[in-house]
Each structure stands twice: as C-alpha cells, then as structure tokens.
From TrEMBL:
The lineage of its organism: Eukaryota, Metazoa, Ecdysozoa, Nematoda, Chromadorea. It is found in: Membrane. Its main location: membrane. Residues 130-157 form a coiled coil. It comes from Caenorhabditis brenneri. This is GOLD domain-containing protein. Residues 26-121 form the GOLD domain. It is a single-pass type I membrane protein. Transmembrane segments: none annotated.
Amino acid sequence: MRVLLALLSLATFANSLYFHIAETEKKCFIEEIPDETMVTGNYKVQLFDPNTKGYGDYPNIGMHVEVKDPEDKVILSKLYTAEGRFTFTSNTPGEHVICIYSNSTAWFNGAQLRVHLDIQAGEHAQDYAQIAQKDKLNELQLRIRQLLDQVDQITKEQNYQRYREERFRQTSESTNSRVFYWSIAQVVVLAITGAWQMRHLRGFFEAKKLV
C-alpha cells in the first residue's frame, strides 16, 4: 500500500514560483511531459510601483503565452489578461517549452513585472470540484475517479520513461557505432601513412645508394 501511495505521489508534478521580467522580456520554461497529459498554468502579473517600492495589480497588462512541443510545433499561442489560466494537452512525449511575455512595448516606460506562475499536470490539473458537480458524483465516487486518474497518469509516466530509455539506448548504440568506425578509420589512416613513409624512406635511401 505504501509503494502504491509513493507511486501515486510521483505520478504528477506541480511547479509554483514567481519571477521578474522586464516589460519586453520573454521568459521560457522547459517541462518534460508524457503524451496525452493535460497541463494547466495559473498566473498573475504585477507591476512595480516606484512610489511604493512594491508590486501591485495592473489589469491593463496583457500576457502572451506560447507553448511548443518537442518537435518545435506551436500548440498554444494566445494573449491573456493580467491574471488567468491557460490549458493545453500534450500530443508528443518529451520537453515542452512554455514561454510568457508581456504584450506591451513602452506603456510602462520599461517597468519591471513580477509574474506568479503555478504549472500543474496530470490529475492535479483537473478541477474535481467542477467534475463532481457536473457528473453528480458523491465523495466516494469522486475519490475513485481521482485514483483512476492517478493510475492512468502513472501508466503514462512509465510509458514515457520507457520512451526515454529507448531514445537513450538508440543514442548509445549510434555513438558506439560511430566510435567503432572512427577507430577503424584511424587505423587505416595510420597504416597508409606508415606505408607511405616506408616507401618514401626506401626511395630516399635508394637514391643515396645506401640500399
């Protein structure tokens, strides 16, 4: 039972942080995500006020969110308000690049922005209160639904790990093959160089009538 609970705790991830960016600066994050996994990001943007020396809300700020999959295809590109939530579902396993930047160029005279960001994936990205209300689930049924989603996420994580192991094995085999052929090429080059030097020296000695 403890092992199952440990696996369930590893099945999802959540990253909550805040960072500072300039008005026109782009900030990107890389997340390794299995395929067919829903990801949500909750964010809030605040503007630095030089009068109070602190950060405050400014609803006129717009934030652009762009997400690219491991094949560098844009799967989300949308302009949001100063506070909101974005959602996307991965179609390809691997590293997804999530970029956030302001839509303005000179509105705030190059002011600094503070962005609060909380990225969640797997069953943590689900709004179970809304699901329970929509599907009319009681507490036990909702808990079972959560456990099934967690088990499904574990399966996706395991498949992704197998995918990574296969990619690593292919890379290792390719590297070993290249090293092997490179070693053979070095031996051939050395053999040809040695033969040429021997022939050159023999010709030199014959010319000097030493042989």
